[in-house]
Specification:
This protein has about 350 residues and is an all-beta fold. It has 1 helix and 28 strands.
Length: about 350
Amino acid sequence: MKNKHYSQIDYPKNTKSFGLLSDGQEVLCYTLTNKKGMEVSIINYGATITSIKIPVEGKEKVDVVLGFDNLQSYIDSFELPSAPYFGAVIGRFAGRIKHGQFNLNDKTIHLNKNHGEHHLHGGTKGFSQQLWTVKKICEGDFPSITLTYISQNNEENYPGIFMVEVTYILTETNQVIVEYQGHCSEDTLVNLTQHSYFNLDGHKEDVTNQEITLFSEKAVATDDVNIPNGTFIEFKNTAFDFTNPKKVPTQNDTTITLSPNQKVAARLTSTKNKLKMTVLTDQPAVHVYVGGNCFGQLKGKENAAYHSKSGICFETQVYPDAPNHAGFPSAILKKGERYHHQTIFAFETIK
């Protein structure tokens, strides 16, 4: 289904207009619903998750991700002192790349710098600020939506035409499965992630009242601007040891490493709403970030005033600055190879 303008009577089922871009192109919001009443809403601006609503016993559905009620706020959020990237797909490369450069095939690639002297989350206008095309919508059991984007050669100075596809699947057991696929016309760098901020108490609450468990004892060590220095930190028996459940910290911006074939990366638990979310992935790391601050300049959904402790991200990915460290897992996608990445956010009621 290509992007187009719809009249009020011919929107696809469970779809509504979410606003117009400055060039007049319409952004749509599509809602997936399973038989348990869980709802996941996605817009094709940034392939962004705008809400995840979960039935909670004795209460109305709880929206467990941060976001905005309108398109303009998503657009304006990229002008904040620190863009939050609420719910968006990040690409071509999630995280920081030192000095915005890396070597590929004996050539130095100079990416756009959008984070001081460094490159962050795909650059000046990464995948999170692009209009994606809705390719397919499936209803019934395991409802899903597939969105596509073609990143042109030299977009943000990345080499090659990269064709990417993201599918969101809502299962009947309240799992949100995120599937990424892609291929490129040339050797390039790819590291995609999903940037939702979770709060199981509800998107208006303080996330530090919840508990996290991180299934790792090691983190990527960084310099004073949070760029990897090529070493690792063992944090067993330190203040950052979350191998047993602890309250969500007031500040966190750390990449934890995962063992090969580990799958389970992290867990978030709310005693208030008796909910837990488990993060499963096939990636070698998850970047854990506490934040969501809109600096009093923008209001979130339902007039929420988001602050620095509003939500927590679990950005499943390859290590930041991977191409500049020989010992890190590779983020190079060769011409003719297929990129594939799966992450699952599994929600359960605590008995």
